[in-house]
Amino acid sequence: MFVGIDIGGTSIKYGLVTLEGQIVSKGMMPTRYEPDELLVDLESVIEAYQADSKQEILGVGISAPGTIKPNGYMVTAGAIKPMYGVNLKERLEALVDLPVNVINDGNAVAIAEHWLGNAIGIANYICVVLGTGMGGGIVINHQLYSGAHGMAGEFGYMVTQDLPSDPLADIEPKSLNFTASVINGICVAYNNALQGMEDSSHEATMDAREVISRAKQGDEIALSVMSAFYEKISVGLLNLVGVFDPEIVIIGGGISANEDFIKALRESFKAIQRRHASVEFLMDKTIAEIKPAKLTNDAGLLGAVYQIQSVLGLVN
Question: What SUPFAM superfamilies does this protein's entry cite (predicted)?
Answer without folding.
Answer: Actin-like ATPase domain (SSF53067)
